[in-house]
Amino acid sequence: MDKFIVKGGNTLSGEVEISAAKNAVLPIIAATILCADKCTIINCPMLLDVYVICDVLKILGAKVIIDAKSSTVNIDTSGINGIESGSNLVRKMRGSFLIMGAMISRFGRFKISLPGGCNIGTRPIDLHLKGFKSLGASVKIDHGYVEASSKKLRGERIYLDYPSVGATENIMMASVMAEGETIIENAAEEPEIGDLAKFLNKMGAKVSGIGTDTLKIIGVKELHGANYRPIYDRIEAGTFMIAAGITKSKFKIRGIDNEHIKPIVAKLTEMGIKIDLDKSQLIIDGTGTLKPIDIKTMPYPGFPTDMQAQMMSLLSVVKGTSVVTETIFENRFMHVTELKRMGANIKIDGRSAVIEGINRFTGAEVKATDLRAGAALVIAALGGEGETEIRDIYHIDRGYVEFEKKLRTLGADIRRMEV
């Protein structure tokens, strides 16, 4: 198990390239199950979660070749014959549950372990199962497993009580070969949803309403293989943008879609950070005086919950009082205890955190409690005084490609060590 050693105080400069979005790639890999053909994912981020979901596909009988040097994943799903997944892998990563919709669609039956993942709060699968039932599948939960089966899925109008990203993706994959028309209302609008829909369409699906809260899917008889390049990671881009603010730095970020990062840009601009946007790159200037703001996480196009912890690190060193309200996950303030070890003045009141700005963080021994919390600690350490040791960084490796190497390219003093 590795740890990061970070010495704060360095000003960052130069440029950094953003990788493809993990949250787009995982459902796209799951969707390759839908065709008995070959698919190629180009510019795929070589992350732990990618390897895990590829291992799940291998267990089911797919041939998967990962070329880490070229960031390419070749998947041949023609040999898939399993109707049950490896429970340990699914418990390891919640995203593995996304294979269920594709498996039911193609084979009419699938059994899978209840999912695991980051311990940031309850993320029930009831909306996924509601969607499967609406399409005509029978669903049974027993001894930690979910089993769904249907002789023939049929299109239906499905209203989601909450715009769940995972449920939208799973229902979309289940419905692309269903008989007739499926309409998903109150669907999640995240860019990663649109990216999955575009990949499905490239495979021969008929999905419309991309980018809106109402998706229309007309079932087709079969899908074929496709090559695809996923979108850039808006959360990684946002993380580096906040790093510029906390280190009082100015540098270039390449590989962005300015439409996807609008909520992040809006809040950082409100704080006083200058951002010069182009279509696929930006220059961020965090050298000015920053002011406190209030943030409330919301489904897209609101401020993303995956940026809440990183923003809290930045607000902790901004003079004045800021309030961060978390509406998505009820247990996503676990990083607060670790930030307090570094000197932060934060008080939790239900789902809100009241932050009184300090001058700067001080080095300490801390641990990553989840993926984004880990990134928040790295950012805090970069802008802090002295040396910080961050343990359990396997969480960070789940969502950031060569995080420490990219930071070192900008001039950060960060190194990975074995514990």
Write the layout of secondary structure elements.
Layout: E1 2-7, E2 15-17, H1 22-31, E3 38-41, H2 48-60, E4 63-67, E5 72-76, H3 87-92, H4 99-107, E6 109-113, H5 126-134, E7 138-142, E8 145-149, E9 157-159, H6 165-175, E10 181-185, H7 191-202, E11 206-208, E12 214-218, E13 227-228, H8 234-246, E14 250-254, H9 262-271, E15 274-277, E16 281-285, E17 294-296, H10 308-315, E18 321-325, H11 335-341, E19 345-349, E20 352-356, E21 365-367, H12 371-382, E22 387-391, H13 394-397, H14 403-410, E23 413-418
Parallel strand pairs: 2-14, 3-13, 9-10, 17-18, 21-22
Antiparallel strand pairs: 1-22, 1-23, 3-5, 4-5, 6-8, 7-8, 10-12, 11-12, 14-16, 15-16, 18-20, 19-20
Describe the structure.
It contains 14 helices and 23 strands. It is globular. The chain has 419 residues and is α+β, with helices and mostly antiparallel strands. The chain has 2 domains: 3-19 and 232-417, Enolpyruvate transferase domain (UDP-n-acetylglucosamine1-carboxyvinyl-transferase, Chain, Alpha-beta prism), CATH 3.65.10.10; 22-228, UDP-n-acetylglucosamine1-carboxyvinyl-transferase, Chain (Alpha-beta prism). The N and C termini lie close together (6 Å). The strands form 6 sheets. A 4-stranded mixed beta sheet has the order 21-22-1-23, with helices on one face. Helix 12 (371-382) links the parallel strand 21 and strand 22 (387-391). Helix 8 (234-246) packs parallel to helix 10 (308-315) and helix 8 (234-246) packs parallel to helix 12.
